[in-house]
Design brief:
single chain; 7-stranded antiparallel β-sheet; two-stranded antiparallel ribbon; 18 helices; 13 strands; binds adenosine monophosphate; binds magnesium ion
Length: 496
């Protein structure tokens, strides 16, 4: 028998933290597990033999049907603010950490099954995930990673025959999520609100030891780590905004203390640009609309800082002062990062005072005509800088032509002001930051439909494309197109 996982070096540090943080629990076996897709590139990075990915042993282990030798399966405790409301206990209700391994470079990775059955934190739910949401999460992690945006990823997608009751009866699937850590803001919030502040430090030290080694042992390590979380969150929001990514459920239990994109549910990439777009059908008030994400990121950081006040100083007033200082870093870091990104998206290299106005006018005209977000930037790259140059590539296609005609001369003047008139060089620069291929809902939907029929071929094709999102791929042009009319109003909700 092949031993595909022999090279894995386990170091289950989270399990060693003890029962206050997690409960040992084995996955529930999946009926008739079948591998729909395995991520060979990620497997190689983890030191797994890619040849073993299709073995029976691999399928059984990553379906949760056979223990992972050396692993320490457990579900962790967390809580969180959901849609602004405090929920005192959540936890891994359907995710089971199989174990933590070290790769050849010494980095630690969580191998976590999602949809692996009930845990002590399942409350009244079934611990399962359906095929559709599993395919969406599997694809999204890879899409984000290859866009250059920090994210959890996934090693495997396995489907089974277990019926799962949602609005209709669907089938179960299990993905193996891979991330340096799945620890959330909510892992800290739970102890603060339960009145167990002594449990904060061991968890914070675990995160710092593993993921912020430069801070190990420093007397002010908690403040420095939390400042880093605030800044990473601000930068992550800037990255999301710049590619038109909408998370959909930015509850504090879905926020990573490493600044990773975490928990893909009813997310979406913008098609037609509506600044107030709400991707989650269940988000009736639009709390997590596209243009609110940066403010919500800030609010979520304030919740984390509130929960970690006991780590900052024994004197409460002093702790609050420190926390406020850390939170103040969010605005400037977000502003600088996002402005740099928008500037690059417009082909500008230098920073000028009125850049924000130029950027906002372009976004407004896209919003006004509901132009396709991704393709508008891509088409702008092909517009020459010279006055009178042929702007048809974008102009003929934009709904809000008048606003564009008013904006175009100013953009051109701005390019000339920084000697940005080498059109080919500028186009190459712009295309390196403006993706051509993003994971649009209708593309994910096609992969889901194939997966429901038992085929992983469309997932493979889509991943091949999304691994090179900035490249022209003429053979895959159709995957860059706007959604067909009948797929424009696909809805996604919290049900998964
Ligand atoms: P989510 O909205 O997916 O981020 O999940 C919020 C909380 O509900 C987390 O504690 C999940 O573990 C839990 N949860 C969601 N779906 C299920 C399910 N089918 N079974 C058990 N727990 C679930
Ligand atoms: Mg979640």
């Amino acid at each position: 028998m092949i031993q595909p996982l022999e090279p894995l070096r386990f170091d289950n540090r989270l399990a060693a933290l003890g029962e206050a943080y997690a409960t040992r629990v084995a996955p529930t076996p999946l009926r008739e597990p079948r591998l729909l897709h395995a991520n060979a590139a990620l497997a190689a990075q983890l030191g797994l033999d890619p040849g073993a990915l299709h073995s029976q042993a691999f399928v059984e282990i990553f379906a949760g049907n056979r223990p992972l030798p050396g692993g320490a399966p457990l579900a962790t405790l967390y809580a969180g603010h959901q849609f602004g409301v405090w929920v005192p206990q959540l936890g891994d209700g359907r995710a089971i950490l199989l174990g933590q391994i070290r790769d050849a470079a010494g980095a630690s990775w969580d191998l976590q099954l999602k949809g692996a059955g009930r845990t002590p934190y399942s409350r009244f739910a079934d611990g399962r995930a359906v095929i559709r949401s599993s395919v969406r999460e599997y694809l999204a992690g890879e899409a984000m990673h290859h866009l250059g945006i920090p994210s959890t990823r996934a090693l495997s997608l396995i489907v089974g025959d277990d019926p799962v009751h949602r609005e209709t009866i669907e089938r179960a699937a299990v993905i193996c999520r891979v991330a340096p850590s799945h620890i959330r803001f909510g892992h800290f919030e739970v102890f603060y609100y339960r009145g167990q502040p002594e449990r904060l430090a061991p968890l914070a030290d675990h995160v710092i030891d593993e993921h912020f080694p430069a801070l190990r042992g420093a007397p002010d390590r908690y403040a420095r780590w939390l400042g880093e979380v605030v800044e990473r969150t601000a930068r992550l929001m800037a990255q999301w905004q710049s590619v038109g990514f909408c998370h959909g459920v930015m509850n504090t239990d879905n926020m990573s203390v490493l600044g990773l994109t975490l928990d893909y549910g009813p997310y979406g990439f913008l098609d037609a640009f509506d600044a107030h777009h709400i991707c989650n059908h269940s988000d009736e008030g639009g709390r997590y609309a596209y243009d609110r994400q940066p403010a919500i990121g800030y609010w979520n950081c304030s919740r984390l800082l509130q929960a970690t006040l006991p780590l900052l100083d024994d004197d409460e007033n002093r702790a609050v002062e420190i926390a406020e200082g850390l939170l103040e870093r969010y605005g400037p870091v977000y502003g600088e990062t996002v402005t740099a990104r928008w500037r690059a998206k417009l082909g500008l290299r230098e920073a000028r005072d009125d850049d924000a106005a130029l950027i906002n006018r372009f976004l407004s005209l896209l919003h006004q005509g509901r132009a396709d977000f991704t393709l508008s930037f891509r088409r702008l790259a092909a517009v020459p800088a010279a006055d009178g140059g042929d702007a048809a590539a974008l102009r003929d296609w934009l709904p809000a032509v008048e606003a564009f005609d008013a904006w175009l001369p100013d953009w051109r003047a701005r390019l000339r002001a920084e000697d940005g008139t080498d059109d080919a060089a500028r186009a190459a620069r712009m295309n390196a930051v403006n993706p051509k291929y993003v994971l649009r809902n209708h593309l994910a939907q096609r992969a889901i439909e194939a997966a429901e029929r038992g085929s992983g071929a469309e997932i493979e094709r889509l991943l091949t494309i999304l691994r090179r999102p900035y490249d022209e791929q003429p053979e895959h042009e159709a995957y860059a197109a706007e959604p067909p009319a009948d797929a424009r109003h696909l809805t996604v909700s919290c049900s998964s």
